[in-house]
Amino acid sequence: MANVSWDNADRMRDECGIFAIFGHPDAAALAALGLHALQHRGQESAGIVTYDGSHFNTHRALGLVGDIFGSEKVMTRLKGDTAVGHVRYSTTGGTLFRNVQPLFAEFAFGGLAMAHNGNLTNTWALRRALVDRGSIFQSTADSEVLIHLIATSTYSGVIDRFVDALNSVVGAYSLVALTDDAVIGMRDPLGVRPLVLGTLDGAHILASESCALDIIGAHHVRDVKPGEIIVIDRRGVQSLSPFAAADSRFCIFEYIYFARPDSLVEGINVYQARKRIGAELAAENPVDADICVAVPDSGTPAAIGYADAASIPFEIGIVRNHYVGRTFIEPGEQIRHLGVKLKHNANRAYVEGKRVVLVDDSIVRGTTSTKIVEMMRNAGAAEVHMRVASPPISDPCFYGVDTPDKDDLLAAGMDIPAMQEFIGVDSLAYLSIEGLYRALGEDGRHDEPQYCDACLSGAYPIALVDHDDGDAPAQLSLLAEQA
Q1: For an engineered disulfide with 173, which of 118, 128, 408, 428 has Cβ 3.0 to 4.6 Å away?
Q2: Do 50 and 181 fall within a single domain?
Q3: 232 and 275 inside one domain
Q4: Model pTM above 0.85
Q5: What's the rounded mean pLDDT across residues 370-377?
Q6: Based on the domain organization, do 31 and 101 belong to the same domain?
Q7: What pLDDT is stored for residue 472 in this prediction?
Q8: How confident is the model at residue 42 (pLDDT cuts 50, 70, 90)?
Q9: CATH number at residue 83
Q10: Are 243 and 299 in the same domain?
Q11: Residue that is last in its domain, among 249, 283, 309
Q12: Is residue 264 part of a domain?
């Protein structure tokens, strides 16, 4: 069957979502619910590993959380009061069963299950060295590099092995791991990828976003700090800081698009942040218009903020079909042309004859924007003015977000007038990077940025070891193809 979400190539693909719980009799069920709340971060595969005091129990599969863990037969096999889980969209490695996480391995100290959100930027260099030393890889995921580094470490304790392994890697990551007596969580020293700590009925939880705590009624305690290692066992919660202190570079695109709007991220409510982003966009780029329309659903909070600040009515001018997934229809040329209409439809009664401000969170390739603008024209819009609630995406991400190559990014090859003509709008304007920082409570972007905004600025805060090795990207692609 063919997947009809053909506009997905024109989006920044979500990264991955991770969840871990220690000390609850319904650990597997709570992990499945937590992963369901994190489904937006990865829709290709999901997995849960539990520990019941004597055995590790695993279920992993390609597909969505509800389909994979909706069976009582599956859930009854996942015994134990500790669990780690993962939802995945592949950034390194292909969409294959052997790349589905959590990854599991047996060590001298016992079993270890690990789930990873992010991307190591020296994967190929490490993998090559490990293979030369005799390591045999079972997947093409960069996460397996960490497994082998832990296995080959000369330290004895699990935590010491983790620290030793992490001292060898370069990249952005949040990790959760399950051993036979603990759950471990950690963030990279710059804190690029998110991780939060929560509690429920005496159990402790780690998750990518606070929305995963909300769904199970857990209490949000705090964000895990950049470079912090959290160890949860029968004695409680221990915090370790084994790495040199560094200024945080949290991913700014979490606020623009990735995080769920109801999540609290680094102390900021995402929905409120997106409304402030829309208000800044209106202040910087006003236009005479009759209505403000969001490109749903990710553009909605910014559009509401824009409409409020500009005193323009916000209307549901585009209706999204939430039930588009798979179809028996083969994606021939005519069906491909209708791809956007299968997901979005103009609300003609509110669009016809109106000057429309169309607000979207971002533009990647621009192909979907072109089709949506055409749809608004066909619905009778008198004018279509596009406002984008982020600065132009000019550079690819190497830290756990799947983005097109730089040559395929619209803003990398065109200036604003050229993009305006390509998309077919009467005017086009983006939020400035200074406006974005103001919306997030900063007084502007300093010489040293407070966030990782590399996709908007080209200023990469973490070394791109594999990218700078001209042979590495081709080799990593070959590995994925061979898999």
Answers
A1: 118
A2: yes
A3: no
A4: yes
A5: 96
A6: yes
A7: 56
A8: very high
A9: 3.60.20.10
A10: no
A11: 249
A12: no
pLDDT in tens, 200-236: 999 999 999 999 999 999 999 999 999 999 999 999 9
Q: What is the span of the domain harbouring residue 231?
A: 8-249
Q: Write out the catalytic residue numbers.
A: 16
- 226 and 356 part of one domain: no
Query: What pLDDT is stored for residue 404 in this prediction?
Result: 80
- Given a cut of 80, whether residue 151 has pLDDT beyond it is yes
